[in-house]
Amino acid sequence: MKLLLTYLAALSAVFGDCSHHNAVFKSIHGADHECSLYLREGTCHSADCSLRCRGLLTRYWNDTVAVPSATINRFYLPSAHDYEYYERTECCLGGVKEKVPLEDVCRRAEASTDCYHRNYGQLQADTPTFVPFTDLQHQQILQDCIDIHQIPESVLVGYVKHGIKLYPEAKCLLRCFLIREGHYTDAGGPDLHRMSVQCEGNYSDEEFRKKASKCIRNLQEQCIDKCELAFRISDECVNGEIALLSVFLGASNTTSNSVTVSPSNTLVLPPKVTSVHKTDHECTVYQQHGVCTTGECSLRCRGLLARYWNDTVGSPAVTINRFYQPGVHDHEYYQRTQCCLTDIKVPMRDVCHRANASISCYNQHYGHLQTKVPEFVPFTELQHEQILQECIDILRIPASILAGYVKHGIANYPEAQCLLRCFMLREGLYSDAGGPDLHRMSVQCEGNYSEGQIREKASRCIGDLRGQCLDKCELAYRIAEECVNGDIAVIVVFAGISTKLTTKLNVSPSLNVNVNGPSFG
């Protein structure tokens, strides 16, 4: 089983019922459109690598293996009377392995995909299908659930060491994890198709599905609380070929490795974006029966999901203001809100009451709460890392180039400028046609996007650069460097995540500075 390498950041992702989960769905046409953005002139290798890019975005391609994973079949519909499509496809793939070198990843992707086109069945190019999560995305979702449920580090280390079965808190954490990944609902149980795609299981095995469904029905009839039910379904009904419980434990183990506390032996029940309306709905799903505490923690949960609350700081980030509309003639709303926040006497450790009191200050003084207006949710560090890694894979940036621009600067590496462009495109912070989204960039970096003077200066700078007919990569870089690198420092975020990845790779920087443009591959 593949243990997977964040959110949500896909530009042409198609969502189903996403009211309480982060699952992403892509069609072939949607993925191809994304690739056409990232691999445009000045950003792509001389060879056609679009089919490899498609496989990377839909998570069925890996350069190390250099053949599609079995989950590519979710995009194809075999003929009802064709009983040899699988054997023909495998035979064709065998020929590709013999004839096309492993290191020629673009040709391997093209030839392998062609095997499916010619032998497996009809390509369903317009049908969105579930895209598996990566390791970093698993870690982010697990961390969200840990924060929502206030799981102590000792409990995390405890269930990793002693098993989920002994910790009711861990069962509630697993339920939250499964729900946020779109693999499970309390009403419908597990989504066997998505779980199988996630774990590369065989969801077409009718015998397995019947056996799992019978097991699930038996457990649902026992009136078990929701956390226990989610755990037992994962442990008893779908923990064979579809081993999502192992994925959860893998993410938990990675997270617990950074924790230095001793495991807890105390078994205690746990404390019981987006728009405000949507985050509140998510919180009610995660904090339902058997999961919530007697205290009121829903406003803290709202802040966690909308990324304006942090327990360590104990007060909302300035980006909470994007959910409020001050009165046109009210010129003192900011001062009143700050005065209210200063007067809060709730201890820092009482995070739920601090969140309630802080958000009440905004409700009373800042302006009208816009409950149903969707707002941009800032990316976390794990999500930044995932998106940067995807762009590195798509553009085939060598590790030496990554280390090179971290040490010597982006200006010296055209490849790094293309990587920055891809990073901003995938985060929805920039487009070639419209330039930077100053509102989103400011929310991401906690800048002040309401200052007209800052916006006017940035707009003038962007207009001047556009008049110079720069290639797309250099234009994106220079806009980020020269026009929005003060209060809105997206380029600092990019450099920080790049440095983190470079530290992991431990390679020497490239000194080959290509003044004629990017040279990928």
From TrEMBL:
One of its GO terms (cellular component) is extracellular space. One of its GO terms (molecular function) is odorant binding. It is found in: Secreted. GO terms for biological process: sensory perception of smell. Pfam families: PBP_GOBP. Its main location: secreted. Keywords: Disulfide bond, Secreted, Signal. InterPro entries: PBP/GOBP, PBP_GOBP_sf. CDD domains: PBP_GOBP. Residues 1-16 form the signal peptide. It comes from the Eukaryota. Belongs to the PBP/GOBP family. This is Odorant-binding protein.
